[in-house]
Amino acid sequence: MRYRLFGPTGLRVSELFLGTMRFTSVEQALPIVDRYADAGGNMIDTADAYGPSEDILGEVLTGRRDRFVLASKYTLSRDKTDINATGNHRKNFRLALESSLRRLRTDYLDIYWVHYWERHTPIDETLHALDDAVRAGKILYAGISDAPAWIVARGNTLAEWRDWSAFAGLQVPYSLLQRDIERELLPMAESFGMTVAAWAPLAHGKLARPADAAADERERKVVSVLADVAGKLDATPAQVALAWTRARSRAVHPLVGASSPEQLADNLAAIELALPEDAVRRLEAATDFTLGFPHDFITPDLLDPARIEGR
């Protein structure tokens, strides 16, 4: 396992992040976390909305919590009967954070993610609350998940102006079947020096299943090419799919979930897989993805005088 810095900070995080949404018991989670730690993994991601995951991790990490970069999230409802038990405002932020700390049996989180952008809370209120928690030592770094690029950029610009802790990481879906972040979110994150945690890098398991299980023709085509590339490289389709996300940008860290140590071991092998350029081209051609406007419009020849006069 190799390590990179978490965004524009000095925190070292492993190349693959471990997601814990699938954790259902301590007995299931313990060998998975042990296998991840044995491989050198140190970044564990959870959320207050992931069922019993925080309680399970609190027990699994007892006695070794500080050896991991531990991250959780808030935004989703903690209590369906309370209108203020959801969202990114200060009240929910404070109560959600204190609850997560209790369940995880720790007095601080290394990274605290805003789980979703919601339109009702101004981004400066959320960032100010995060900065207060950083100054209080309850969180060390802030991140944001599932938000538009313009919101993240606005937030980090406000943080720079007001001397607040900015978002150091971005968590978004990214896979061969869902490349949308290449339009705005990934370039924005790279510009701010942010780490990108790519969730669902296997498209919720679709990229690890046979082509005849595909839901449509596009998915079938991608899975077929993926299987062919994997066969030529003596790798599994899952390993190739994970390696592709890492080949696209050094900012990207695949966030892998596993329900068993064996499944995790297969995913971890993707770290050592370097995809040839022709394999990357084949995979990307199969996705039938285009950046769209304005990216396809703003090309080097756009400023050519002949083109301008002829428009």
Automatic annotation (TrEMBL):
CDD domains per UniProt: AKR_AKR9A_9B (cd19080)
GO molecular function, one term: oxidoreductase activity
Keywords associated with the record: Oxidoreductase
Record has Oxidoreductase as a keyword: yes
Domain NADP-dependent oxidoreductase: 16-286
Superkingdom of the organism of origin: Bacteria
Family annotation (Pfam families): Aldo_ket_red
GO cellular component: cytosol
SUPFAM superfamilies: NAD(P)-linked oxidoreductase (SSF51430)
Transmembrane spans: none
Name of protein: Aryl-alcohol dehydrogenase-like predicted oxidoreductase
Native source organism of the sequence: Kribbella antiqua
